[in-house]
From TrEMBL:
SMART domains in UniProt: RING
Organism: Cephalotus follicularis
Cited PROSITE patterns: ZF_CHY (PS51266), ZF_CTCHY (PS51270), ZF_RING_2 (PS50089)
Keyword Zinc-finger: yes
Residue span, RING-type domain: 153-196
Organism lineage: Eukaryota, Viridiplantae, Streptophyta, Embryophyta, Tracheophyta
Pfam family, one: zf-CHY
Protein name: Zf-CHY domain-containing protein/zf-RING_2 domain-containing protein
Pathway the protein takes part in: Protein modification; protein ubiquitination
Gene Ontology cellular-component terms listed: nucleus
Domain CTCHY-type: 88-152
């Protein structure tokens, strides 16, 4: 009898779902009372609505009813269909009302984040200062920025906190999608789009610029010209000799600087 029940639970596994998830149920959206495969399907559909006021996002925790894809029975949220006895999702989270048959993704619910994540619980830790889960490699190895994941990716503008794509933490502590980060690097951009700090150790590049500057004499008219600069890496302002190739921060030696108006001294 038990063997039969287990077999029943697995019936139709991986056979149903949408482009986002394999699952054996659809959800009734609590906000608009319509049926969708998942909340991403809902959000995609409603974001296309012509009337701006109709656009809205589904609050996953509010889902109350689901429809079994095997027997079409609408019922309260639960893992097993009350009518046909199948698992509507091999992975099921009661808090997020989340179903997924593809357990290879390593889904887990983080109580501190309040949502389900993928990638295996053992590979993540929750940073209380940043207010999000990060991969184990970042433990004691990142600059904490309060709520650093509660913003949109500075490249593609998707909200990062519950994005399905991998995110990376830059040296400054700001975050963006891994793929957006690599795209940015490919375009020879090496500073954070949010705070402009260098995202990697640039000392070799700065050395090369040192050499270039040494080899490039400025015309006589400019040789004594000085400018004020603000350093994007250490935030210091200093006065340096003007040069067409770049301006080096006198404090931290970075060339990631911009010229600013001279400070106004109190009279
Ligand atoms: Zn979907
Ligand atoms: Zn059913
Ligand atoms: Zn969850
Ligand atoms: Zn977390
Ligand atoms: Zn942190
Ligand atoms: Zn992005
Ligand atoms: Zn930054
Ligand atoms: Zn500096």
């Amino acid at each position: 009898m038990e063997g039969f029940a287990n077999e029943r639970l697995g019936f139709g596994k991986m056979g149903y779902g949408c482009k986002h998830y394999r699952r054996r149920c659809e959800i009734r959206a609590p906000c608009c009372n319509e049926i969708f495969s998942c909340r991403h399907c809902h959000n995609e559909a409603t974001s296309m609505l012509s009337n701006l006021l109709d656009r809205h996002e589904l609050v996953r925790q509010d889902v109350k009813q689901v429809i079994c894809s095997v027997c079409d029975t609408e019922q309260p949220v639960a893992q097993v269909c009350t009518n046909c006895g199948i698992n509507m999702g091999e992975y099921f989270c009661e808090i997020c009302k989340f179903y997924d048959d593809d357990t290879e993704k390593g889904q887990f619910h983080c109580d501190d984040c309040g949502i389900c994540r993928v990638g295996g619980r053992e590979k993540f830790f929750h940073c209380n200062k940043c207010g999000s889960c990060y991969s184990i490699g970042l433990r004691d190895n990142h600059l904490c920025v309060e709520n650093s994941m509660r913003h949109h990716c500075p490249i593609c503008y998707e909200y990062l906190f519950d994005s399905l794509k991998d995110t990376t933490v830059m040296k400054c502590g700001h975050t963006m999608h891994c793929e957006c980060y690599h795209e940015m690097r490919k375009r020879d951009k090496y500073c954070c789009p949010i705070c402009s700090r260098s995202v990697i150790d640039m000392s070799r590049t700065w050395k090369r610029i040192d050499e270039e500057i040494e080899a490039t004499l400025m015309p006589e008219d400019y040789q004594n010209k000085k400018v004020w600069i603000l350093c994007n890496d250490c935030n210091d302002t200093t006065e340096v000799y003007f040069h067409i190739i770049g301006h080096k921060c006198s404090h931290c030696k970075s060339y990631n600087t911009c010229t600013i108006a001279p400070p106004v001294l109190p009279q």
